[in-house]
Amino acid sequence: MKIVDIRATTVAVPLEAPLRHSNGAHWGRFIRTIVEVEADNGLIGLGEMGGGGESAESAFRALMPYLKDHDPFQLESLRFKIANPTASLYNNRTQLLAAIEFACVDLIGQHLGVPASDLLGGRVRDAVPFASYLFFRYAAPGHAEIRTPDQLVAHTAELKAAHGFSVHKLKGGVFPPDYELECYRALAEAFPDDRLRYDPNAVLSVGEGLRFGRAIEGLNNDYLEDPVWGLEGLRAVREQVRVPLATNTVVVNFEQLASNVLRRAADVVLLDTTFWGGIRPCVKAAGVCETFQIGVAVHSSGELGIQLATMLHLGAVLPNLTYSADAHYHQLRDDVIDGGKMAYSEGAIAVPDGPGLGVRLDRERVAEYAELYREMGGYPYDRDPGRPGWYATVPNARFADPTVSSVEAAP
């Protein structure tokens, strides 16, 4: 089996409403580049990549000279062909590699007639549990803003009723820490039997991180995720706070993982199939974490159904996955795969049973959302449409005003 073509299509898939985060916002849609890798036997493997609100089509097209006639089974040589660690300093191809690896795993599974999870060691679970992913958000037609503790609690109750979530993750760093602490405590009071996690995307100072961490020590926490930036910052907080710390930002390769093993900064590593360069590196990293008693979870970087399938197959094969996975998925209005969005059941999503990743494209949906991208274009992920001229610093001291009600955000 040889690669004969690579095609990339950028789509804009609508979200329920614009989602705010510590460094900007998702402006009411996810911009994703869908990758199709065609083999000489007629099979097509699927990959997917984000990109901060921008298209990556041209970057994928540029890989064709590297990958023409490459055997998709040769995944280790694939890594060095396009993401040699020295060469990648100049072109940062790790996320491109991930999307191509997804597609090659998909091709291998289709060729052999087995699900991707069988290629990764076999399933230890048939469904992967997820946390609700809670955002402060702007109002949009049919969807109210989420800004106050009461609005946040009401939205969480709706998600819990609709999807069965029993773990709730609050994406913070938008409003001042004391205000978000009030919101977090409101969740704990409203859902005393559920577990919680808080993620301000590393914009707190060490002092604020310590204060916030100590204030939540008595709550039913899974972990405190990236309260501050960097391994040294996390170590400073971890030494003085009795809440497990997690990261998805500063342990995203094996050298950083080794540093975390030698001098523990994070108790939980969130494995992202894009950030780590594919599904297989995440499986390898989980094995290291198992050896050194570091917890693992599955991270979400704003997925459609293709990357969600990679997350599900990853979650299916990790015996040490003791935390619910993250997913933005319930924030989407639609998907580009056959059958539309995958369904939650009791807070979990079933691992696809079909060969490879187990998902196929709905060509009409792809065409519809490719046209939407052409109409609307991309957006700057690290800017907030409701705060013109603002940008985040690390640590951040310019938080949004929680007393100001939002209006519908710009597209």
UniProtKB/TrEMBL annotation:
It is an enzyme of class 4 (lyase). Pathway: Carbohydrate acid metabolism; D-glucarate degradation; 2,5-dioxopentanoate from D-glucarate: step 1/2. Its EC number is 4.2.1.40. Pfam families: MR_MLE_C, MR_MLE_N. It catalyses: D-glucarate = 5-dehydro-4-deoxy-D-glucarate + H2O. GO terms for molecular function: glucarate dehydratase activity. Residues 149-244 form the Mandelate racemase/muconate lactonizing enzyme C-terminal domain. This is glucarate dehydratase.
